[in-house]
Design goal:
It is an enzyme of class 1 (oxidoreductase). By secondary structure, the chain is of the alpha/beta class. It has helices at about 10-20, 25-35, 45-60, 75-85, 100-110, 115-135, 180-190; strands at about 40, 65, 90-95, 140-145, 160-165, 170. It has one domain (about 10-245): Rossmann fold (3-Layer(aba) Sandwich), CATH 3.40.50. Strands 3-2-1-4-6-5 form a six-stranded mixed beta sheet. β2, α4 (about 75-85) and β3 form a beta-alpha-beta unit. The radius of gyration is 18 Å and the shape is globular. The structure holds iron/sulfur cluster (SF4). The site of iron/sulfur cluster has 13 residues, from α6. Iron/sulfur cluster binds near residues 69, 120, 127 and 128.
């Protein structure tokens, strides 16, 4: 049983144990019932569509937000409106600051992210991390669609953990779901999904940084494929220290 008066780290540990034994809908119901605002950030990927569907169908008081980076596929942007209509919810868009984009372009070039890891992290910082901080402002719980089987980097994903850097509790209600579980839910609930998934894109981010994968490749092999680091991420789900090349936006 979650103790509301616990420290954030104790609450996260307790929540982690409690969520392990219940299904998705109950996981969301428990988090929605705790004191404090819960925010789910969706990339409109298939995992996130499952969570959005569960929130919409359960009518849970959880904010659904997305980071509109300005470099998304048209299919992704179209899916935002389709999802809102399907589940009768409002998805709040968070955009990068125009001044940050200008400063990035002046320093690295608009597509400078292909040239170095530093430039790539800097782009993700201004287009994703800064808007994410805005989306999570004032939240006590951050719900994500991370799954353990997505990549080796995510293999130890807990159901709940205290994010000391952001001072909130990160909740991963699909941590133990397989891709087969995801597909079965999508089928059962007629969840709208990005048409790019059927064209070889299991993981979809910004258009210039995502390619289709080949048969047998890991799910996230099409993300920032030109980089050699097996653990490449955009910085949303790794500590800031791990992306220390990220400059402070102008
Ligand atoms: S995924 Fe690519 S385009 Fe999108 S924010 Fe990161 S570097 Fe920029």
């Amino acid at each position: 049983m979650v103790m509301p008066s616990s420290s954030p780290a104790e609450l996260a540990a307790s929540l982690d144990r409690q969520l392990a034994s219940v299904p998705l809908q109950e996981r969301l119901r428990i988090v929605a019932g705790l004191d404090g605002r819960a925010v789910f950030t969706t990339s409109l990927g298939i995992e996130d569509q499952v969570i959005t569907a569960a929130i919409g169908l359960g009518r849970f008081p959880i904010d659904v937000s997305t980071l509109e980076t300005g470099r998304l596929f048209k299919e992704t942007v179209d899916l935002i409106a389709e999802t809102e209509e399907r589940f009768g919810i409002a998805i709040k868009r968070f955009y990068p600051k125009p001044d940050d984009i200008d400063a990035y372009a002046a320093k690295f070039g608009l597509n400078g992210f292909y040239e170095s890891v530093e430039a790539r992290h800097a782009c993700c910082h201004v287009r994703k991390l800064v808007p994410l901080a805005e989306a999570l402002s004032g939240a006590r719980f951050w719900i994500t669609g991370l799954r353990r089987s997505q990549s080796g980097n995510r293999a130890a994903t807990p159901f709940a953990e205290y994010d000391a850097e952001r001072d909130l509790i990160k909740v991963n209600p699909l941590a133990d779901w397989s891709l087969d579980d995801i597909n079965a839910y999508v089928e059962a609930e007629s969840v709208p999904t990005n048409p790019l998934h059927k064209k070889g894109y299991p993981s979809i981010g910004c258009e210039p940084c995502t390619r289709a994968i080949k048969p047998g490749e890991p799910e996230r092999a099409g993300r920032w494929w030109w980089e050699n680091d097996e653990k490449r991420e955009c910085g949303l789900h790794v500590p800031e220290a791990a992306t220390s090349l990220v400059p402070t936006p102008a």
